């Protein structure tokens, strides 16, 4: 994640596949959230959906059970949906996954692949087919994608 986290914001958006048409509005939203945080140390979550989504995902490492961990992922996704609603109005999975990837880069969850493996191994079979199972799949897809991007980066610029 360090390689991805160190990239400039536009490179992160590009790597994640966020539609370039949304970049200016997203950058404005992020700048507005910084201004809100400067003037209000404890803003309402709805006023800072990006920062709230990153914080929600970071909480996964503090949770013990599969349900608690997936609730963090779901909470993150709900705020990603709020971001997308502000940016594009209606959206689908084609917009959700790239934005979710972008938030995951910013959250930089330690041992993300281990978290994914834990969820995969211990998720109740019935839960795989509801919204929590869907969010687990989104997280797994993102983690696998990041792994491939980091490998490509290392191959492209060997030490």
Structure report:
The protein is mostly helical. Helices cover 72% and strands 0% of the residues. It has helices spanning 2-5, 9-16, 23-39, 49-58, 66-88, 93-107, 112-122, 131-156.
Produce the secondary structure layout:
Elements: H1 2-5, H2 9-16, H3 23-39, H4 49-58, H5 66-88, H6 93-107, H7 112-122, H8 131-156
Mean pLDDT: 89
- Helix-strand makeup class: mainly alpha
Number of helices: 8
Radius of gyration using CA atoms only: 16 Å
N to C succession of SSEs: HHHHHHHH
Percent of residues in helices: over 70%
Which residue ranges are poorly predicted, with pLDDT under 50 across at least 5 consecutive positions? none
Strand elements, count: 0
Which outline best applies? globular
Main beta sheet: none
Termini separation comes to: 17 Å
Residues in β-strands, percent = under 5%
Short description:
The chain has 159 residues and is an all-alpha fold. It is built from eight helices and no strands. The chain has helices at residues 2-5, 9-16, 23-39, 49-58, 66-88, 93-107, 112-122, 131-156.
